[in-house]
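In the design runs reported in the main text, the only information available to the sequence generator was the tokenized backbone. The following block is the verbatim input for one such run; it is reproduced so that readers can re-run the procedure and compare outputs position by position.
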């Protein structure tokens, strides 16, 4: 089973930057799409950005122009560079990935999340 571990969260002032990282480990045949989600207190989890194995990325409207998602298929990592952070970006950021097994079956897995707090 693949495990995802996020890192890079913390406290930053409005306008600042953070770089989140997620490392996948364990037995896997392939990793397809990798995603970053976030969840503010009392609200539903929402998609922030996604990236395919070939590097095709997409972003939620609320982060377009401020965030960049990237991945390293050798190290099995995905990162999210966040700039011009706003207080409303505060929340727990989760890494998500579609994992393909050697059997041809796939499943998705989640990390435990990393806290991002943006002060005004």
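Verbatim output:
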């Amino acid at each position: 089973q693949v495990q995802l571990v996020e890192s890079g969260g913390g406290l930053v002032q409005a306008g600042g930057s953070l770089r989140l990282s997620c490392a996948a480990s364990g037995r896997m045949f392939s990793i397809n799409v990798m995603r970053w989600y976030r969840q503010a207190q009392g609200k539903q989890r929402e998609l922030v950005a996604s990236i395919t194995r070939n590097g095709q990325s997409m972003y939620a409207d609320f982060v377009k122009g401020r965030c960049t998602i990237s991945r390293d298929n050798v190290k099995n990592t995905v990162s999210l560079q966040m700039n011009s952070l706003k207080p409303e970006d505060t929340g727990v950021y989760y890494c998500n990935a579609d994992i393909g097994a050697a059997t041809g079956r796939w499943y998705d897995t989640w990390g435990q999340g990393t806290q991002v707090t943006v002060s005004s």
